[in-house]
Every structure is written in C-alpha cells, then in structure tokens.
Amino acid sequence: MLTSHRVKHFVKLGLALVLFAQPSAQIFALSKTPDLGSNATNIQPTEDYVEPEEYPQKLKDWYAQNMDARSYIAVDAETHRVLAQKEGNTPYPIASMSKVISIYLVYKALDEGALKMDQMITVSDAIAEGIASNVNLSNVGLVAGVEYSVEDLIYGVMLESGNDATSALMWEIYGSEEAAVQAIRDQLQAWNITNFQFYSTSGAPNEELPESLWVAGSGVDDENIMSASDVALMTQYAVEAYPAILDVTSTPEYLFKEGTEYERPLYNPNLLLPGALYGREGNLGVKSGFTDDAGRNFVAVGDENGRRIVSVVMGVVGEDPSTGEPLTAYWDQEILLDGLLDYPELYQNENLPTNLPAEPEPEEVEEEAGEATEEPADPNLENRRDNPLTNFMRNIFSIFN
Predict the structure, then answer these.
(1) Residues 12, 99, 200, 311: which is the catalytic one?
(2) Per its UniProt record, what PANTHER family does this chain match (predicted)?
(3) Which are the contacts of 78, defined by CB distance < 8 A and separation ≥ 6?
(4) Which residue, 98, 294, 331, 293, is CA-closest to 193?
(5) Residue 367 domain flag
(6) Average confidence (pLDDT) over 107-120
(7) Which DSSP string corresponds to 94-109?
(8) Which residues span the domain enclosing 149?
(9) 68 found inside a domain
(10) Which is nearest to 331 in space by CA: 292, 300, 291?
(11) Is 182 within 8 Å of 199 (Cβ atoms)?
(12) Is the pLDDT of residue 113 over 70?
C-alpha cells in the first residue's frame, strides 16, 4: 500500500547514528551539502521516456510526493523495460558510479589474463601524491612504493570508493589515466552507449586532480556525465558479464592488507544491504557516488517481486528537517523499489519503453565504417535512443566522494 515515507524516514535517520556508526570515508563525505547550482543545469534538455496511457497515475504521484532525486530509473533486467523514471534520459554528473565501468574493465583484464587476483601492484608517486593525499577525495590511502594485491585494490574501489585504488588498477592495465579513460569510452561505445562525457576512471572531477592527469582537451570544469538510463545499462552489462563484482559489492566487511602494518577493515557503506538501515533481502550492491554538483547517487542491483531490477537514483540533495542530517540516495532507492511492489503487473506491460539504445540503421553503419579510416571516433557522439537526444556541454565545480 502506498503511504508517505516521510515519517518512516525520520525514524530511520534517528537510528542511523547508533546502528551504522562505522568508519567509512564515504559516509563521512556524505555530511557535505551538495551545491546543485547554475553549473549543474547547463546540460541541454533531452526528450524523456513516455509511459503508456495505462501507466498507474497513482504510482507517479506517489513518487513525486515522496522522492527527492533529480533523476531516477528502475529497469527490469530481463526485458529492459523502464518500470519507473524521472528524467531518465537526461545526463547529469555521476561521480563514483563511474567506478562500475572501471571495475568491469579490471575483471575483463583478469578474465583475459592481463591481471591476476594475487598480483601485487606497486603504488607510484603520481597516485600517492596526486590522488591519495587529496583530502577532498575518497581514498584508501595508498602509500608510494608499497605493494597492494589486485584483490585488495578491488575491494578498496567498491567498498571504500577509493579513487587511488581505481587509478592504481587501471594504470596497471592501460599504462596511464588517459589511456584508461579511452578504454572506458571505447567500451561504452561498444555497448552503443554514446551520450556521455568521461574524463576520469574514478569519477573524480578534473578540479580535484593534478592537471597532469587530465585527459587531453579537457579543462578544470570537466566531470563524468551520463544519464540514469545509461548508468543502469552500463551496470547491468558489467555485472552480467562478471557476476563476481556483486560478490564484492554485497560483502559487509573486508580486511584490507591483512597481516601487514597497513591492515584495516573496510566497511560496506551500502545501506540497502540485508540487515542495514534500508535493507532489502534481494539487494546485491552496487555503487554510490557524490560530488557537489552530482548530489548523492546510488545504482543498485537486486531482486524484487521475483525479478532482477537495476535502479538508479541521482541528484539527491538537502537535509532532513527533523534531524538536520543529509538526505540519502538510499532512502530514495527504498521509495522507488517499494512503489513497484504494489504494481507487479508493470513487469508484463509490453508498452513500456526500454532503456536499450536503438541499433544504427544499416546505411549508418556502412557510412561510419568508411569514415573510420579517415578520423578517430568521437567519444561524445549523438545518442541514438528510442527518443532522440541532443549533445551537451556544461561546467561543473564540485568536490568528489
């Protein structure tokens, strides 16, 4: 039954400080108040999904009354049907949700033999001084000259949201931040995801990175940007290809650098995991993200109503008027998923739009193949979705989590 989540949320937030006061760089960073100012609205508007006439108005109204997210989407993983959305096709900053595609490429390298799980990676001065030492970034705290296993770094990425751990892994595979970013762009293009901007492997905005790590042609204002729909698609492709990613993101706690002087526990900050504040029995992760312009974000994978659902909440801002604590993307995820529980018939509605990109027309493929020998591919091509999208540019000033 659809009832207001406001009172329920106030009670839960009151318990949060007692039940989940675990050391986590990500949790601490969420105490910041995001600034979704004018810089966050410079993206050109895009045509949104259109629900069929029979879509339940009561559900739409309930979401409008209870959710704070700037954009969101819930997708049935089997059919790709969009079960619920708001501005699902509109690109916004995605912050640390960027790490999903990076960790996919790490597992791809493991699969292809380019990496081994027990392989040791020595941290460079560039990562230690340029990333790990930045207190504005969420980091594991990698130390120059110290060796870390690939496994430790993977958990550092997905549990601690370590920007330093992300770059350490990606540089080991591709040699540099720029080459790794290009690999990300190429992979997204291969998935026919085209309406994006990608400038860092971790989601850290250029403003927080040394200029030596900026991708050629980018500037201080640049930050990774995608739509909720594309984040959902990217995440689904990643975890379906490598389900072991979900083994990591569903782990409550991991002992980092066990048996060394750097040993310490990493705690999973995902409040949707079973037993957590907003716990759901079927939740398996995956990744949060925060910058001032991105707000609070979370992409989740889990089983609801017997279906595998990929849900994305983006741009949650503001404070709980009862406690003064920041609102969280976990709360909005709970509302989004709870709403669908009362409408199982949505899963069977063949009139719902899907989040699959439209395949290029045959003549377009032939033309692009001919042009490929003349000039390199543009990583920010026009999006060919069911609804046409326009390219966008924007300036962002933010602090990354």
Answers:
(1) 99
(2) D-ALANYL-D-ALANINE CARBOXYPEPTIDASE, D-ALANYL-D-ALANINE CARBOXYPEPTIDASE DACA
(3) 307, 308
(4) 98
(5) no
(6) 99
(7) -GGGGHHHHHHHHHHH
(8) 6-358
(9) yes
(10) 300
(11) no
(12) yes
Cα separation, 235 vs 232, whole angstroms: 5
Cβ contacts of residue 91 below 8 Å, gap of 6+? Answer: 43, 46, 195, 196, 197, 225, 226, 227, 230, 392
Taking alpha carbons only, the member of 116, 127, 234, 239 closest to residue 184 is 234
CA distances from 320 to 19, 288, 324, 327, 333 (A): 18, 19, 5, 6, 16
The catalytically annotated residue of 161, 167, 229, 288 is 161
Give the Cα separation of 390 and 195 in Å (integer): 8
CATH number at residue 111: 3.40.710.10
Residue 215 lies in a domain: yes
Instruction: Single out the catalytic residue among 96, 102, 218, 250.
Output: 96
Tokens 């490429």 found at: 105
Strand segments, DSSP code E, in 114-235 are: 120-122, 147-149, 225-227
Asked whether 101 and 182 are in contact (CB, 8 A), the reply is no
Domain total in the chain: 1
Q: Which two tokens stand for residue 301?
A: 């994978």
In a domain, 113, yes or no: yes
Please say if 99 is a catalytic residue. yes
Catalytic: 167? no
Q: Is 287 annotated as a binding residue?
A: yes
**pLDDT by residue (tens digit) across 138-197?**
999 999 999 999 999 999 999 999 999 999 999 999 999 999 999 999 999 999 999 999
Helix (H) or strand (E) holding 234: helix 228-241
